[in-house]
Amino acid sequence: MLLVPPIALAAVLPLCAALQIPFHARPSTPPTSTPSSRDAPPPAQEHTLSLRHAVHFSTTHRHLPPSKRDYSTFELAALDAQPDVGLYSSTQSIHTKRVRARRPNSQEAFQAARRASYWTPLRAMQEGRLPTRQEVEDTLLGQTLEWEDVEIDAPDVKDVATLAAFGKMTSNAYTLPDSSGWYDIGGGWNVSDSFGWQEDGMRGHVFADEQNKTVVIAIKGTSALIVGGGGGTAHNDKTNDNLFFSCCCARVDWSWSTVCDCFDSSYTCREDCVEHAVMTKSAYYPVATDLYNNVSALYPHAQIWLAGHSLGGAIAAMLSRTYGVPSISFESPGDLLPARRLHLPLPPTNRSRNATHPSGGDKPPTRSLDDELTTHVFHTADPIANGQCRGTISTCGIAGFALESKCHTGKSIKYDTVGRLGWSTDIRTHPIHVVIEKLLIDDWGVKPDEVAVQRAQGDEASSWFGWWPGRGNKKPSEDDGGEGAGEGGDEDEEEDDGQNGGKGVPEPHFEDETCSDCSKWTFI
Ligand SMILES: *[C@@H]1O[C@H](CO)[C@@H](O)[C@H](O)[C@H]1NC(C)=O
Ligand SMILES: *[C@@H]1O[C@H](CO)[C@@H](O)[C@H](O)[C@H]1NC(C)=O
Ligand SMILES: *[C@@H]1O[C@H](CO)[C@@H](O)[C@H](O)[C@H]1NC(C)=O
Ligand SMILES: *[C@@H]1O[C@H](CO)[C@@H](O)[C@H](O)[C@H]1NC(C)=O
Ligand SMILES: *[C@@H]1O[C@H](CO)[C@@H](O)[C@H](O)[C@H]1NC(C)=O
């Protein structure tokens, strides 16, 4: 009785997922948007957001309630009056645009579908047991997952000022509440609190506009390495980072094997084992959804957007996929690997229907860059964003991190700082203030250094920072016309590099279709 139905269901499941079930009016969860906000899109294209709260969630002591600190307008005025390195105005203006998006109709169904796609009835059978009650329930509930087509406001990521405003909100999450850095416990916090700023956990800075209609959560993780500053890094953070961003459970120390012991032999890894570890041992994703739900409960009628830097950026992107809301992430390590291992369900993409070729041919499903909700902003010299922070000699290796993933979900806006500014790979280019000051400006790459640029491009060493395969201008494999190419076009690489001549925001692109993580590894 228990065994048979789930198997039958499992057989039906892929079919259901492939079909695009039209959204029909089920009693939908109210928080997403009120009728008024949907029917009458705000005429104002500009939103002014100011800091309202900081919230902190422990990743190790999950039973403890989250902390919250509220900022009064008086405190904000005091903060803004304080001249401080790396502290930007607590009020930021952004531009928006309308996008079409898909979002899950129910979080319960989304999470059930996520779990059910790992703990399948087939897995239970292979393990020689009956599916558990939870597995059966997840399978059933997961099948009710549907994706609604909605039209929503999103930050205009082609606008430099908007990107910079998000960067500044993200940066403030590190430096507030006061000048002496993020370890300080400001007024309003429970000072005796054992899990305050100093230990691991996740912090969100909540910004809202005057009408409480638009809320931005800037998310920050607490790894000292990722902050780029000193301080002890909790073991738990390393564990989480290495679980998420390394190919096969990079070992931190002797205790690591209890977390993830999936390494089989040289460059061979048991994939199922890693997925199990990520699904069950990683605290980041469940804590992040708690954070989102708590802020959503504070502002039940608001549209919520996400921002984050580094680890916080990866988390923002995952929440963006989970809730179908916009995110802007800066210098995130590759988040595609953990998103896959977490089994985050993806919305069905619109297949190009073609009567002449009913099979659909080989044409990939259409995806629109304009409508993509998840945005990654990073540059080519940052070893963390490019999956080069690994190995025992690198800074990361010494600190016990292996950040090896490089592929990002959603769309990527990639500043070619190696090619245009002559930067070399250096962890000191990772901090958010570098991005804000050097890149999120109008003419970031239009320097008179064209000579240096060309030297860098000719240099062999720079080839590992090139564009991902498929997008690259490096190896035109089919269309090189031999001699014909030599005449005029050989120095014309600039026009096609997606960098818009170093002005404003580089062209976004999808990298997850062409990028591959951990290519040295065999997963069994
Ligand atoms: C502060 O937190 C500790 C531990 O969580 C708790 O025992 C104590 O009652 C809290 N104090 C206040 C004033 O809330
Ligand atoms: C917005 O929310 C805050 C609480 O964070 C509340 O104090 C304020 O009155 C709200 N403003 C409006 C216009 O609803
Ligand atoms: C807020 O977070 C706590 C965990 O810190 C969680 O137990 C609670 O359910 C969350 N609240 C909401 C409304 O999601
Ligand atoms: C998918 O196609 C449907 C019908 O053509 C359209 O209404 C919807 O907006 C499309 N969704 C996306 C995300 O493009
Ligand atoms: C269908 O596909 C064929 C070949 O790929 C193309 O020539 C034709 O224009 C397509 N029709 C539509 C309606 O997209």
Characterization of the model:
Residues 1-18 form the signal peptide. One of its GO terms (molecular function) is triacylglycerol lipase activity. With 524 residues, the protein is α/β, with parallel strands linked by helices. It has one domain (6-26, 41-349, 367-445, 504-523). Helices cover 31% and strands 16% of the residues. The chain has 17 helices and 14 strands. The protein has helices at residues 4-18, 35-39, 73-81, 107-118, 121-126, 133-142, 160-175, 224-227, 235-245, 271-281, 284-298, 311-323, 336-341, 395-399, 417-421, 432-439, 450-458, and strands at residues 46-57, 67-70, 91-104, 147-155, 202-208, 214-220, 263-265, 268-269, 303-309, 327-330, 374-379, 411-415, 509-510, 522-523. Strands 1, 2, 3, 4, 5, 6, 9, 10, 11, 12 and 13 form an eleven-stranded mixed sheet that branches. The chain has a three-stranded mixed sheet with strand order 7-8-14. A hairpin with a 5-residue loop joins strand 5 and strand 6 (214-220). Helix 7 runs antiparallel to helix 16 (432-439). The chain is globular. Residues 1-44, 177-198, 226-233 and 459-494 have low confidence and may be disordered. One 2-acetamido-2-deoxy-beta-D-glucopyranose binds next to helix 11.
